[in-house]
Amino acid sequence: MHPVLTPLSDQRIEQISPLLSPSLLRHELPCSPDVALTVARGRDRVTDVLDGRDDRLLVVVGPCSVHDPEAGLDYARRLAAHTSHLEDELVVVMRTYFEKPRTTVGWKGLINDPGLDGTFDVNRGLRTARRFLLDVLELGLPVGCEFLDPITPQFIADVVAWGSIGARTAASQVHRQLVSGLSMPVGIKNGTDGNVGDALDGIRAAAASHVFMGVNADGLAALVTTTGNPDAHVILRGGTVPNYSAADVAGTRERLRAAGLPERVVVDASHGNSDKDHVRQAGVVRDVAGRIAAGDRDVTGLMMESFLLPGRQDLGSDLDYGRSVTDACVGWDTTADLLDELAAAVRSRRTTT
Predict the structure, then answer these.
(1) If pLDDT is split at 50, 70 and 90, which confidence band does 1 have?
(2) Which residue, 140, 43, 59, 87, is CA-closest to 347?
């Protein structure tokens, strides 16, 4: 008798469910001409600031993660209205993150679990995320996303003006290859320990052509050949110690110069630079704003985690409207003041040169 053989594959797979195709989602929720103009204009403006052709400051600001589209859109309306009179000084991109990398386990973001209840209705999450992006773009506000799952960009990247690769994935070959084919400028963060070398290596790798396995617009396995992304840049987000000081920024620019890379540096006021204390974010922003006002041009952009209400809360049945469920955020009133101060700093810088 032949022994009964145990199946060799899928031994730890509980279920495989259908996933809608990127082309179907784009058909259901198409990009209008006005939205397409906002995306294209946003990408061009961000690139011009990063390359020094535009003396404005790039500001990427918004919730740590979008968990409530209603509150997120409320925030977007306030941001669009407030920054409409700051366009001469700031290029504002709303942070609209739907994927959350976790150190161990936890809620992975709106796309993965839109119900915040462990039901993992990813098809609903993809539809919700794309609808939200279109709603924000219809306000004339470009959007920025962190890309975590290498398949996700096929569903939403066509409407994203700026992208980021997080500290946990900065050294990932998969994500560097992904960036090489993305159509927008992408910031790559230094490692969680503060290692800027991961980001520099990532920029160099992303600028090159790659061939790798992925999916096409129909969701089918495909071989992807990219031309390389020349618009990747460093995001200093701190590590075991902050790295937003003038010396840190100058040192990073020197390392970029030595590597033959464009000297583009964006400072993240959150994470390691504020020790994840949302109150300290304002101090980081004001420190950089003071340097800008004095004539500093080394910092090309700033990032802030900001929502309607300050702080954070744990997931549960009775959530505060407009308060983050992931990292703690600066509240709206403080955010508005900081945006005004950054715009004033840019105006002051123009008088010093």
Answers:
(1) low
(2) 87
d(CA 83, CA 108): 30
Helices (H), the chain: 22-28, 33-50, 69-83, 122-137, 153-156, 173-181, 197-206, 246-258, 278-293, 332-352
**Sign of the torsion formed by the C-alpha atoms of 225, 205, 301 and 274:** positive
80 residue type, one letter? A
80 part of a folded domain: no
Q: Is residue 41 part of a domain?
A: yes
- The amino acid at 350: R
Sign of CA dihedral 223, 232, 187, 259: positive
Q: What is the pLDDT of residues 39-67, one digit of tens each?
A: 999 999 999 999 999 999 999 999 999 99
Terminal Cα-to-Cα distance of the chain (whole angstroms): 88
Give the pairing of strands 211-215 and 186-189: unpaired
Neighbours of 41 (CB within 10 A): 14
Residue 64: which residues within 8 A CB-CB, separation 6 or more?
Answer: 95, 97, 270, 305, 307, 312, 324, 326, 327, 328, 329
What rounded mean pLDDT belongs to the chain?
A: 96
pLDDT at 100: 82
CA distance 80 to 83: 5
pLDDT in tens, 270-280: 999 999 999 99
Tell me which residue range forms the domain holding 348: 22-50+57-68+85-311+324-352
> Can you give the CATH number for the domain in which 224 is found?
3.20.20.70
Residue 69 and residue 314: Cα distance in Å, rounded? 17
Number of domains the chain contains: 1
**pTM of the shown model:** 0.96
Reduced to 3 states (helix: H, G, I; strand: E, B; else coil), residue 258 is: helix
Taking each helix axis from N to C end, the angle separating 33-50 and 122-137, rounded to the nearest 10 degrees, works out to 80
Residue at 73 is within a domain? no
The angle subtended at Cα 170 by Cα 116 and Cα 115, nearest 5°, is 5
Q: 127 lies in a domain?
A: yes
